[in-house]
Amino acid sequence: MSLNRDYYNKAFSHIYVEEAVAEHPRTCEILQKFPEAVQIPIHHYKDVFCRKRQDIAGQEEHPMLIIAAKEGRLIYEGAPVCQSFGNEYFYYTSCVMNCIYNCEYCYLKGMYPSGNLVIFVNIEDIFAELEEILAKHDVYLCVSYDTDLMALEDLTGFVRAWNDFVRTHPGLRIEIRTKCGRTDLWDRLVPNENVIFSFTLSTERIRKECEHGTAALRERIRCAAKAIETGFPVRLCFDPIIYCPDWQRQYDAMLDQVAGQIDMSQVWDVSVGSFRISQDYMKKLRRSQRDSAVVQFPFVNDGGVYHYPDRLMNEMEQHVVDRIREWIPEEKIFRWKE
Fold first, then answer.
1. Fewer CB under 10 Å: which end of the chain, C or N?
2. 265 phi, psi to nearest 5 deg
């Protein structure tokens, strides 16, 4: 007998709330959006999020929400597997842990012990720590590595909060990465050249097979084009490039589609890189994604980082770079290198 999906709880049917932020204004705003949810007070988010032997796959299908305060160090130096785009002072921060999308190859599956979503409501503390760093030097900050803030904007309001903060801090430039396709946000935000919206563009085949719940390629393209038309800086990320037997045909078709619908002369810059992940994350990722052809590919472990064999990696990346050169000047194309 198979279980009916109705036996499972709906997403965010239960919301765990740290006692320390129970009265925080952002907590109250979030809870108002889920009047029927069961609210469970907790002392610390790790009491729920870091429990052993959690059913991560089940949680990703039907996640619970945890509302908490981010403590300790709030801003971190950028990781080697991430693009710095030539910025000397490269940092990242996490306002949210985990993502409402379910991409098979996502490193979050190898990093976190839970599939539930954590929202840190005390973004003002992140701002305060950031101001201390800005007093020393300029900052390039990625704020959407561990989630998709655009997809969660109606729940958190963090995209607007970051956009407003950057407007009053000229030494700060941020990147907001997304696989979202919503276009309504552009009418709610004031364009700022220091807030870069970065769109991960995948072939439609990979999107259907591996990036569950994400916006279709045509929707991401439409969203990016609308952002450019409205005056926002847009970065196009062909990263990660994912191998499939007909990868060249798939990527050629995607690039032609992108160039046909986006004014490439107005693109801020472009990121190119094939799939890569730290060995520690890969071990857990492969355990949780046993049926994923993408994850179970025989990657090469090179100094603690798994990636495609050099010949295949270089062939795919170089082909994409060569095609992009048809529309984008060389100095605006950033290819990941170790």
1. N
2. -70, -15
pLDDT digits (tens, 9 = 90+) for 274-297: 999 999 999 999 998 999 999 999
What Cα–Cα distance (Å) separates residue 296 from each residue in 64, 235, 284, 287? 28, 29, 12, 10
Taking the CB of residue 54, how many other CB atoms lie within 10 A of it?
A: 16
Contacts for 95 with CB less than 8 Å, ≥ 6 apart: 70, 119, 120, 123, 126, 143, 147, 149, 156, 158
Q: Where are the alpha helices (DSSP H) in the chain?
A: 25-32, 46-49, 56-61, 108-111, 123-134, 153-156, 158-167, 204-210, 217-230, 247-261, 279-288, 310-324
Q: At what angle do helices 247-261 and 310-324 cross, to 10 degrees?
A: 20
CA distance linking residue 282 with residue 270, whole number of Å: 26
Per-residue pLDDT of 20-50, as tens digits, reads 999 999 999 999 999 999 999 999 999 999 9
The distance of Cα 310 from the centroid of its chain, to the nearest Å, equals 26
Sole residue written with tokens 């976190």:
112
More confident residue, 101 or 3: 101
Mean of pLDDT over the chain: 93
